[in-house]
Amino acid sequence: MKRFGFAAAVAVGAIAVAALGWSATAGAQDLKHYDSNNKEFWTHPPDDWFLGDETKGQKGLAPPANPPTPASMAELQATLAKVKLPKGFKIEVYAANVPTARQMAWGDKGTLFVGSWFGTGSVFAVVGPMGHKEVKTIIKGLTVPTGVAFRDGALFVVDISKIYRYENAEANLDHMPAGTVVYDDMPNYIPHGWKYLAFDKEGRLYVPFGPPCNECLPPTNVSQIRRVYPGGTAEVIAMGVRNSVGGDVDPRTGDYWFTENARDWISDDLPSDKLNHVTRTAEDFGYPYCHQGDLLDPKFGKGHSCKEFAPPALKLGAHVAPLGMKFYTGNQFPAEYKNNIFIAEHGSWNRHKYQGARIERVIVDAHGNAKQEDFATGWIKGDHDYYGRPDDVLVAPDGSLLVSDDWAGAIYRISYSK
User: Fold this and answer.
1) How far apart are CA 105 and CA 397, in angstroms?
2) Integer Cα distance of 291 and 288 in angstroms
3) Cβ distance 226 to 248 under 8 Å?
4) Reduced 3-state DSSP string for 202-232
5) Which pTM does this prediction carry?
6) pLDDT tens, 269-302?
7) How many Å separate Cα 152 from the centre of its chain?
8) How does pLDDT run across 133-151, given as a tens digit for each residue?
9) DSSP collapsed to 3 states, 255-283
10) What is the chain's alpha carbon radius of gyration, rounded to the nearest angstrom?
C-alpha cells in the first residue's frame, strides 16, 4: 500500500477522514499493531489499518492527504515548468479539473475516459480540441472506480467487487446507460481493492486482486492476477502478488507484465517495488514470503527460500509506488522507444525522504531483459511533499503519451519533435 490520501470516507471497511490526521500526530501515539490474519480484519479493517505494522524506526510516517480540490491551470503550469524530460520532449496540460484522475482509456472516436480515486466515485470523459478540453462526469455513485478500459464500442469500469460494461458509451456521454455486470466473482475488501484493467488482443481482461492488509496470509481469492474471458469465466495467471495497480500486454509476445507495490514497514530502503513478467500460468511471485525476489519476510519467510518463487524482471526501488504502465506502441517518439515500457510512479509515503513521483522508461529486449532510466521527473516538493503524483500513462493515437495525476487532478501530454 503506497498512498492513501483519502478525500472522504467510503462504504463498509473504508478509511475514515480522521485517518488523514495521522501524518501530523502519529509520532505522539503508541506503535500500531493489528492482527491482519483474520476475516474480521479483512471485512471490517480499522480506519488506520495501513499503520498496523508500524516500527519504531518509521514511527510517524503516514499517507499524505490529497489537496482538497484539483490544481488551477496556473498551478499546473508552474508545476510542469519544473518537470525534466529528455531532449526533444515537452510536457503540457491536456486537461485540468479531473478530480483524483486515475486509469485512462481511449474510445474509438477519441474520447478519453478516466477513472477516479477515493472520495469521487465517478468516471469522467474528456472531449474537445486541445486547449479547450471539456471534462464530463458520465458515471456517479460508485465506490472506487479506479480502472477503465474500452473495447468494441463499450466502456468497462472496475469497482471494488464488480466489472461493469457500458454499451455504446461514446454516443451516450450525457446520458450513460446503466452498466451491465460482466464479472463479479470478486471480494469486496476495500484495502488494496482498487484495480486497473488491461485487455489483450483476444478480448481477455487482466484484473489484479490485492490483499486487504500490508503483510499477512491473505484470503485465498486475492494476491493474484486473473484473466477474465468474455463469457465471464476466469483463471489465475499469477499468484503471490501484493498490490498491483497496473499492467499491460507485450505487443510482441502477448505476455502480461505488471507493476507491484512491495510491503511497508521494513525500512526506508527495503523492500524494492517490482516490475514482473508472467511467463507461465499460475506463476508465484512470492508474497507474503519473499520480497523483491531475494528478501525473505522476517515473519512469513521462515521455512521458505526465495528460490521457490519467480524473481522480478526489474527492481524499481523502495517505496516508489509503481502504478499504471504501458508498452509504447506509437510512432511519434524516436525509434529506440518502440516497445519500451513507461511506468507512472505515484511516489512514497512509507519513507522519510520521498522518491518516485515520476515516469520511468524501461527498455525491454525480446528476451525479457530489462533496464530502467528516468524519463520525466520533478513532481516531488522537498523531502516530504508533492507537486503532483503520476498514476497512469496512456499512448495517444498521435503517438504522444498522456499522464494522469490524481494529486493535482489533471492529465498531461508528453510529445516529441526533432
Assistant:
1) 11
2) 7
3) no
4) CCCEEEEECCCCCCCCCCCCCCEEEEECCCC
5) 0.93
6) 999 999 999 999 999 999 999 999 999 999 999 9
7) 24
8) 999 999 999 999 999 999 9
9) CEEEEEECCCCCECCECEEEEEECCCCCE
10) 20
